[in-house]
Amino acid sequence: MEGRCPYKLDVTGQDVHGEAKSLREQGSGIAMVQLPGDIRGWVVVGHALAMELLTSPKVSKNPRMHWPAWMSGEIGADWPLASWPTMENMTTAYGEEHQRLRRPVVKAFTPKRVRAMQPYIERTVQRLLDNLAATPPGEVTDLKRNFSYQLPATIICDLFGVPEEDRAAVLRGGEKTPDSSLTPEEAEANIRDWHEQFGKLIASKRAHPADDLTSDLVSAVGETQLTDNELIGTLFVALGAGSETVMNLVTHAVLKLLTHPEQRAMVADGRVSWDDVIEETLRLESPLNMLPLRFAVEDLHLDGVTVPKGDPILMGYGAIGRDPEVHGDSAEEWDVTRENKEHLSFGYGTHYCFGAPLARLEARIALPALFERFPDLRLAVEPEELDSQGTFIMNGHNTLPVILTNAPVPVAAG
User: Fold this and answer.
1) How far apart are CA 248 and CA 394, in angstroms?
2) What residues in the chain have per-residue pLDDT under 70?
3) Cβ-count burial of 372 within 10 angstroms (0-12 exposed, 13-18 middle, 19+ buried)?
4) How far apart are CA 26 and CA 24, in angstroms?
5) pLDDT tens-digit profile of 326-348?
6) Contact at 8 Å (CB) between 93 and 229?
7) One Pfam family this chain carries (predicted)?
8) Sign of the C-alpha dihedral, residues 321, 326, 330, 335?
9) Is the sign of the CA dihedral 20, 24, 26, 31 positive or negative?
10) What letter does residue 109 receive in the DSSP assignment?
């Protein structure tokens, strides 16, 4: 096993599910890979092993403590994935430090508080649908950009009080960071940019606090007080995760319904629920394909494979949801009637995604509203013509061209 050559990941992510199959064929639930910059890493592809490592103290998310190549400067800000270890927040912390950084944000996303947001989310969805309805009948529109993205981006920016005129710039870092094909120059520029943008937001809230989550974080004192770098990192992960992942969830769910008309009919007549659609989509099409980065705190001996201390590890959520050990021979199929829809697409254990309740609620409101408003909704291209998102970190498509309503049929003269 230890003499095996690493699998070189496609930084453009043209076939993330094909890669997942190849990685699973290594047969141990974890596969050696070559990351950008010819760096050796590992991808977890097995469900059982993922649950084990996601809760193990032998695996850390803190590069400043447990990644020798980062600590020594061998890998720096010009590495394509450098934004991930650069940020200082709950996602790059270990042990008690993780809980300290997580606590100030999680309290704003409790199930009770999220449920209270339902009327606001419903109004936001209806406004976006009204905008879509202005599209001329028969004309093609990009549903990903104009709906799947606009919904979570609007909600998360409203929550954190990002001014309308600054939203594109603030969200740009979250859009570029998942790009595994960044050049060294682009990687460094991206880090400078999102530090600058979030620094401006923090300074603005200090000068003019308001009723929003950014102001709450900035004004915190005592054990919930964060340093400026921690504030920047926390805002970065909250706004990035709060928009990019929900965007892919909604886009995938729409695409699956459009390409599985028999299952769409089952949803329409109530034989299965929208929750079934959402959970099966999360299982089969995890919005995140591979999430960087964890590190081996010590040598890990895993089913005949040794992951050396300090090596980076990615969680291959796109593969984990399709594990045949859990979902059998039909693991690669989208089936809303599937009894076991178990998945780890929101993580597991202490690093479970704090935004999961909000993401589910957004999808639960948006999807039925979309299909109710546009019952003739259909793809404008063949499914195989859709381009990938262009990264091995995310699992999505660049666009989702659709036709919302049928063009009027011309009336013959005479």
Assistant:
1) 8
2) 1-4, 409-414
3) exposed
4) 5
5) 999 999 999 999 999 999 999 99
6) no
7) p450
8) negative
9) positive
10) G
DSSP 8-state symbol, 145: I
Q: Which residues of 304-336 are buried (b: 16+ CB within 10 A; e: fewer)?
A: ebebeebbbbbbbbbbbbbbeebbeeebeebbb
Strand ranges in 186-311 using DSSP code E only, listed in sequence order: 291-296, 300-302, 305-307
Provide the Cα torsion 10, 12, 16, 22; round to 10°: -10
Q: HSE-up of 383 (CA within 13 Å, CB side)?
A: 10
Helix (H, G, I), strand (E, B) or coil at 375: coil
- C-beta separation of 406 from 413 below 8 A: no
Phi, psi of 95, deg, nearest 5:
65, -135
pLDDT at position 161:
97
Class in CATH terms, 7-403 = mainly alpha
Q: How far is CA 118 from CA 176, 213, 232, 267, 361, in A?
A: 30, 18, 28, 21, 8
3-state secondary structure of 310: coil
* Helices 228-259 and 356-373: angle between axes, nearest 10 degrees: 40
Amino acid letter, 338: R
Q: Which amino acid is at 263?
A: Q
Domain boundaries, the chain: 7-403
- Centre a 10 Å sphere on the Cβ of residue 185 and count the other Cβ atoms it contains: 9
Would you mind telling me the total number of residues written for the chain in this entry? 414
| Per-residue pLDDT reduced to its tens digit, 165-195 | 999 999 999 899 999 999 999 999 999 999 9
Token couple for 353: 């995604």
Q: Are strands 312-315 and 378-379 parallel, antiparallel or unpaired?
A: unpaired
Locate 170 and state its tokens.
């603030």
- List Cα–Cα distances, 86 to 16, 82, 288, in angstroms: 25, 6, 19
- The whole-number pLDDT of residue 407 equals 84
CA neighbor of 81 nearest in space, from 318, 291, 315, 395: 291
Q: How far apart are CA 219 and CA 204, in angstroms?
A: 12
* Secondary structure string (H, E, C) spanning 44-106: ECCHHHHHHHHCCCCEECCHHHHCHHHHCCCCCCCCCCCHHHHCCCHHHCCCHHHHHHHHHHH
Asked if omega into 182 is within 30° of 0 (cis), the reply is no
